[in-house]
Design a protein that fits this description.
2 copies of one chain form a homodimer. Helix content of chain A is 58%, strand content 6%. Chain A contains 6 helices and 2 strands, in the order ααααββαα. In chain A, strands 1-2 form a two-stranded antiparallel ribbon. In chain A, α2 packs across α5 and α3 packs across α4. Chains A and B meet through α1, α2, α3, α5 and α6 of A and α1, α2, α3, α5 and α6 of B. The structure holds a DNA duplex (30 and 30 nucleotides).
DNA sequence: TGGCAATAGTCGCATGGGTAATGATAACCT
DNA sequence: AGGTTATCATTACCCATGCGACTATTGCCA
C-alpha cells in the first residue's frame, strides 16, 4: 500500500532474528516489503480501473471473468468454473447466483448427473462479453504505456517466475 | 487468473473493432491480458501466503497493515489511517472496530476535537507487530527466490512505473 | 455572531473472498 | 448388493472493501 513515507525509525530492536545468512547483500527491510506493496497496489488499481470502465454495463471485473470463461467453455459445471477462476466452489456459486439473478446466465441440470449444474450464457451476456474483452485489452495497453515491448515481456516473464514460486509455497508440504 | 489453458478459438468475430493504429507490432490479445491476470494472481497468492503464516496469531494481512501503521504513527486518527492505507474511511473504521474488539488497539477521544478518535496499539499488538514484519520480509524473500538482485530491482522499477500510470488514469479527467 | 461548508465517524447495502458443515448423489470396491 | 468414499452444490458465518447517506462537530466568513 501507499504512502507510509517518512521515518523507518523502528527502535533498533534485538539484533535481527536468525535469518539464514546470505551471500549477497540484502536490500533494506522496507525495500523488501516495497515490492510486495507495489504488486498489491497495482492489482487493486487495475481492478478499480476496469470496474470503472464496465460499471455502465452493470458488471464487475470478477463477473466478466465468469462470462469470459463461459464464453470459451459453455456448459461447464460450477466446480469447473471455480477451478478455472482459482476460487472456492462457494465463491463461484455465489457469483453464479448473482449473474443468474441478473439474467446473464442460466443453470441447467445435467441429465446424467443430478449433482451438476451446467452453465450457459444468455444472448445478452454473449454480446457484452466481447465488448469487455476489448476494454480489458485497452486497459492493459494504457497501464503499460510507460514500458516498451521488451520491458513488458521481461515483466511478464518475471511475474511468471514469482507466481510459480508462490504456487510452490502454497503446496501442502512446503517449509514455512 | 489461472488455467484457461486450451484453445483460443474464439469464433473469429468481426475484424477487430477500431483499435488505435500502432507503430510497433502488438502481442496477441491474450498476451496483453496475460500480464493483467498475472499481476492479480501474484497479489492474491501473496495475500493468501501471508494470511496462512499469520493465522495462528489471530490476524490477517490487512490487520497487520493497520498495526504496522499504528506502530510507526501512534495516535493517528481513523481518517489519517484510511488515507495511509488508501482505503475508504468506512473500511478503516470497521477494521478498527474488529481490532478493538479483539484488544489489539484502543480508541481514545481527542481532547481538543470531539470528532476525532486517536488510535493506540495495546502492548500485545506491539509485540506481534514486530513478528509480523519479520514474517512479511521472509515471505517476500521466498516469493522472489527465483529472481536475482538485479531482476528484483528491475521488477520494482517497472511496477512503480505501472502504478504511476494507473494512478494517472484514475485521476478525474483522464480520457477513458 | 450566526449560518453554512468542510471534516470525522458511523451505518446500510452491495460485491467478493475464505472456511466449515451439510445433504444429495455418484463411484468405487470388497 | 451394500457400505464406504468422493464429488457437487448450498448454506451459514467470517473478513475486506466500496459507495452513499447521515450525524455530530469544527471552522470559516460575511
Amino acid at each position: 500500500m501507499g504512502n507510509d513515507n517518512l521515518d523507518n525509525k523502528r527502535p533498533a530492536g534485538p539484533p535481527s532474528p536468525p535469518l539464514p545468512p546470505r551471500s549477497r547483500p540484502l536490500p533494506s527491510s522496507d525495500d523488501r516489503r516495497h515490492i510486495g506493496f507495489l504488486i498489491s497496489d497495482v492489482a487493486r488499481l487495475m481492478r478499480a480501473a476496469f470496474d470503472r470502465r464496465v460499471r455502465r454495463l452493470g458488471l464487475t471485473r470478477s463477473q466478466w471473468l465468469v462470462l469470459s470463461r463461459l464464453h470459451r467453455h459453455p456448459g461447464i459445471s460450477q466446480s469447473e468454473l471455480a477451478e478455472m477462476l482459482e476460487v472456492e466452489r462457494a465463491t463461484a456459486g455465489r457469483m453464479v447466483d448473482r449473474l443468474e439473478r441478473s439474467n446473464w446466465l442460466v443453470r441447467q441440470p445435467d441429465p446424467a448427473d443430478r449433482r451438476i449444474n451446467r452453465l450457459y450464457l444468455t444472448a445478452e451476456a454473449e454480446a457484452v462479453q466481447a465488448e469487455m474483452g476489448t476494454i480489458a485489452e485497452g486497459l492493459i495497453d494504457e497501464a503499460m504505456a510507460l514500458l516498451d515491448a521488451g520491458e513488458r515481456a521481461a515483466l511478464t516473464a518475471m511475474m511468471e517466475r514469482v507466481k510459480t514460486q508462490l504456487q510452490a509455497m502454497a503446496q501442502p508440504g512446503a517449509a514455512p
